[in-house]
Structures are given as C-alpha cells and as structure tokens.
Amino acid sequence: MATERKHRERGDVIFANQLVTMGDLENFKSDLLDEIRTIVKVDHGRPTKKWLKSSEVRKLLDISPGKLHWLRSNRQLEFIRIGGVIYYDREDITKMFEKSKVRVSS
Q: How many CB atoms are closer than 10 A to CB 15?
C-alpha cells in the first residue's frame, strides 16, 4: 500500500496494459549512459578526480611512500594537508611531469 502511494506521488504508475517497446529501452539506455558519463568524467578510460590522496598518487606514479615524501619535501609536488590527510591536485602532478620533461634535440 505504501509503495503504491509512493509511485502515485512520483507520477510513475504502471498499468497492466502498458508495454515497453524496444525504442523505449533504447532511449532509456541512451539517457542512462549520458547520465553516467556526466557523473564519471572519463579521461582516456580512467575516471578523473581533482584531488587525490597519497595512496592514489603512489599507485598512479608507481612510487614508494618515501619517494612521495621526497617530492613533497623538495617542493617538486604541491599538496594540501587537511587534518591528517594529504591531498594532491591532479593538475599539479601533470605540471610536475611537464617541468621534468627532457627535450630531445634533433
């Protein structure tokens, strides 16, 4: 009874004589995929987050905790500490790579 009332309040009452067509399913699929894409912004197949924790940065760069500490202490990589958690901006990691690029001369 309560479930039926909730459905009526939302306006999505389903009747026994209603059919779902293939077109309806295709539209639903398209809408759902669009919604997922907006929620999870994809960058070359992997979800992007603006702020990464230390463990995520270590995994991303495949480095040890000591190497990450060295990058912080030598001001190679900017960070923010909130409470006991250290966060890194993904853009700062990209900038660090750009600064460290070795130019090849022809």
A: 5
Q: What are the C-alpha distances in Å from 53 to residues 2, 17, 86, 106?
A: 43, 52, 6, 39
The residue ranges of DSSP E strands in the chain, in sequence order, are 42-43, 46-47, 51-53, 80-82, 85-89
Give percent above pLDDT 90 in the chain.
42
- In this structure, what are the phi and psi dihedrals at residue 35, rounded to the nearest 5 degrees? -65, -45
Q: Which residue do the tokens 């901006």 mark?
A: 89
Q: Is the pTM of this model over 0.70?
A: no
Count of C-beta atoms within a 10 Å radius of residue 60:
13
Burial 23-55 (b: 16+ CB within 10 A, else e): eeeeeeeeeeeeeeeeeeeeeeeeeeeeebebe
